[in-house]
Amino acid sequence: MTDAPASAPSDVPADDDVHEQKAVRLGKRDRLIAERVDAAGGAYPVAVPVTDTIPALRARFAELEAGDETGVTASVAGRVVFSRNTGKLCFASLQSGDGSRIQAMVSLAEVGEESLQAWKELVDLGDHVSVTGQVISSRRGELSIMVSDWAIASKALLPLPNLHTELSEEGRVRSRFLDLIVRDQARDSVIARAKANASLRRTFDEHGFLEVETPMLQIQHGGAAARPFVTRSNAFDADLYLRIAPELFLKRAVVGGIDRVFEINRNFRNEGADSTHSPEFAMLEAYQAYSDYNGIADLTQELIQNAAVAVAGSTTVTWADGTEFDLGGQWERLSMYGSLSEASGRTITPETPLDVLRALAAEVGVEVPEKVATHGKYVEELWEHFVKGSLERPTFVMDFPLDTSPLVREHRTIPGVVEKWDLYVRGFELATGYSELVDPVIQRERFVEQAKLAARGDDEAMRVDEEFLRALEHGMPPTGGMGMGIDRLLMALTGLGIRETILFPLVK
């Protein structure tokens, strides 16, 4: 029994059909094992002949015309995604990991009656097979292998989903392995991510940065305002935290003399999940000694624009829905307080009293929990209400309130403000950058204020980190630092939601 191309309207065949097909395929597995008594692996051999990849053959023989024969013998392997059996000739489409396909033609004249019959009886959709034969172009102009020998490389016990019907979003996320088989965009997203990461590393290398690794298990969480995951170490008999950010360790590296340092890492934040947030996510952080938030903004723009060129061939990217988005040119730099004042029609400065901000928030329906109700928190929440939604082009939003930025240096000319920017692309925050706070005395004061917020019930507030303060006391040079979500970078480059940019996102 050989599967015909799937045609059910659902993501996968019905349960009864799956059980029936699995039983039939298990029988074929048993037969393969019985007939291969001298072959290691049975239905899953250790190795099969492969001399060429499918994409390499397609590139080499791209100009072949219908009916041409090359005289070249090749062995290729791939997954069977289409199969049609006739009396003396069987056709199958073999797919490689990148989605490239080649046709296998198994004929009575080339392989003999016994081998042809075995193909008909044993090969199913989803199986991996190796075929050897001459590379030709069929009468319809399809690049093909005229098979002289073949072998099953791996027997699929479960059928593929319908190749002509989109998997649901939930189905794609939960069974990404199937998504990668059947959907070009899923494979393209993985390739885009790899190209973007490679581009980031190239750009850093060109600027003399070193890539390092910092701990994921930490005695004390820090480096961001976030609620951590807590775990337990039996060896140390202590609670440990999964990293929420690598910042405090990367700054230790700068203190130690690694003047230009970066890390692409996994972070974990025990918070909500939505279209732009995931509890586990990839992040890039970088620090450049003797720079500031302006210099690190220039570098961030270059990193993203280079990544766009690596993925799309241009700084103008095309999203999954066909929309073109321009990441080129010089990006605007917008004052947080200035843009909030303009959008709200009120003059709002670092000196604006908390009561005034609270009244404005109540007027427009912005809620701020009392345990975190500081001047800065109100300003940031009001800015998101009035301004955030209007940002279409990539924009650096500059100069944040002091009390919400405990790791950032105060602005050199504007009291009550710190030298921090957030980069907004497509209406969401993509990256953040600082002129880093390097004075250990002021940093301790900021940590103490954070500890007071924690005592009031703010789960995201930082704690006093004595080891980090001890490092700062040994002298940290003026430094610009930035952090950027890799998943969000892919969102900006592809137009996809965050769960589509992560290969295997966390699902309940």
UniProtKB/TrEMBL annotation:
CDD domains: LysRS_N (cd04322). Residues 198-505 form the Aminoacyl-transfer RNA synthetases class-II family profile domain. Pfam families: tRNA-synt_2, tRNA_anti-codon. Keywords: Aminoacyl-tRNA synthetase, ATP-binding, Cytoplasm, Ligase, Magnesium, Metal-binding, Nucleotide-binding, Protein biosynthesis. Its main location: cytoplasm. Binds 3 Mg(2+) ions per subunit. InterPro entries: Aa-tRNA-synt_II, aa-tRNA-synth_II, aa-tRNA-synth_II/BPL/LPL, Lys-tRNA-ligase_II, Lys-tRNA-ligase_II_N, Lys-tRNA-synth_II_C, NA-bd_OB-fold, NA-bd_OB_tRNA. One of its GO terms (cellular component) is cytosol. Its EC number is 6.1.1.6. GO terms for biological process: lysyl-tRNA aminoacylation. Mg(2+) 1 binds at residues 422, 429. Its cofactor is Mg(2+). It comes from the Bacteria. One of its GO terms (molecular function) is ATP binding. It is found in: Cytoplasm. Homodimer. PANTHER family: LYSINE--TRNA LIGASE, CHLOROPLASTIC_MITOCHONDRIAL, LYSYL-TRNA SYNTHETASE. HAMAP family: Lys_tRNA_synth_class2 (MF_00252). Belongs to the class-II aminoacyl-tRNA synthetase family. This is Lysine--tRNA ligase. It comes from Microbacterium lacticum. The lineage of its organism: Bacteria, Bacillati, Actinomycetota, Actinomycetes, Micrococcales.
